[in-house]
Structures are given as structure tokens and as C-alpha cells.
Amino acid sequence: MVIFEGGVNISDVLGELATVSLLDENRLIIWENSPKELTIYKLPITNCQFILWFDYEVDIKKYSGYEVFFFPEEKEASVFPLLDLLGNRDSLAFLELEKRNRTSPNDTQYILTMVFYLLRSLVVTPKTAGDFIKKKNEKMRSNFHKDELINLYKSTLEIDFKIKSGLLEIPQAEFSLINLFTK
């Protein structure tokens, strides 16, 4: 396998393509972000699998006769609406979690990490937080007593432990987590 990254000299790639392999096997050659002016039909491609890898969309007409695959980035669902509902003790958090699970399933560990962040922010808002965040945290903080925040943190840690130990299934854990905040 030979990998060329963007910015490599075209003559180096052509030299590698023209070189006969000492092994009977086909080589895999990957060229990341080749120059846009490159014309694929002029390349001496023999005895190898040749992949052009782009981190942007390309004109597929330019590569007719070749297989073109797109792997677009997934749009990440924001966790902040869920955190806002939890911080406001709003039972709509159950619906928000369900909506999030449809767009980003298997994201429970990320949600737990962000819940820990929420709880720490409610105890002490980061100094670097903007005014909007400070006001929002102050409003949400009024929904909890300090002891309650400590108990929520402890209970969230327990849920995390039970998930990782296999003692609690994900749907049960998510229900328990939301239920802690909406009691």
C-alpha cells in the first residue's frame, strides 16, 4: 500500500504508478486530494488498485468509467436542547431524547458526558462563558439546591457505571437519567 497526501509532486505519483511491483499482488495506491487539473485517463494505471480520495465533493463527470463513492459527513444533532430541558426540569426532555435517538442513535456516552458538563456548569459557571450562558446557567441553577446537584452528579455516575458494567440497558439508563431531572 502506498499513500500520497495532498501537495505531493505529480511526478512522484506517476513514478510509483509506472514502477513494476516485485510482488505478484496488486498494490493499493491512495492519493489524497490530488490536484484538480489532474486528468485520470492520462495515468498509467496497471497492476494496482488506484484510489483518489477527496475531502470535498468532486465533479463525477470528470471520472466517468470509474467507480465514485461519496461518504458525506453526518449532521450531528445538538445535545444542547436536551441539556436546556434537563436544566429547566422540563419533562419534554423525554421527547427531545427520543428525537435525538432517531437522528443520532447510540450516543448515550456523549449525552452522559454532556450531562456531567451541565451539572458542573450549574455548580460553577466557567469564567470564560459568555453572558448568555452565564444568565442561562443562573436561571437553571435556581431550579436546584446545591445538595440536589451533588446527588444528581452521583446518580449520573451510578447510571454510567451500570451501563458500562452491563447492569443497565441503554433505554432504561436514558429513562432513569431523564427521570432524575424531571422529578
List the helices and strands and how they pair.
Layout: E1 2-4, H1 10-18, E2 27-32, E3 48-53, H2 80-87, H3 93-103, H4 108-123, H5 131-141, H6 146-165, H7 170-182
Parallel strand pairs: 1-2, 2-3
Helix pairs in contact: 4-6, 6-7
What would you say this structure looks like, in words?
With 183 residues, the chain is mainly alpha-helical. It folds into two domains: 2-63; 80-182. The protein is built from seven helices and three strands; from the N terminus they run βαββαααααα. The protein has helices at residues 10-18, 80-87, 93-103, 108-123, 131-141, 146-165, 170-182, and strands at residues 2-4, 27-32, 48-53. α4 runs antiparallel to α6 (146-165) and α6 runs antiparallel to α7 (170-182). The mean pLDDT is 84.
Provide a compact summary of the structure:
This protein has 2 domains: 2-63; 80-182.
Features:
183 residues, three-stranded parallel β-sheet
The global form is elongated
**Biggest sheet features:** 3 strands, parallel
Number of helices: 7
Radius of gyration: 26 Å
The proportion of residues forming helix, as a percent range, comes to 40-55%
The class by helix and strand makeup works out as mainly alpha
Separation of termini?
Answer: 57 Å
SSE pattern, N- to C-terminal: EHEEHHHHHH
Oligomer: single chain
Give the integer mean of the pLDDT values.
84
**Total number of β-strand segments?**
3
Count structural domains: 2
Low-confidence stretches: none
- Strand arrangement within the widest β-sheet reads 1-2-3
- In percent terms, what proportion of residues is strand? 5-15%
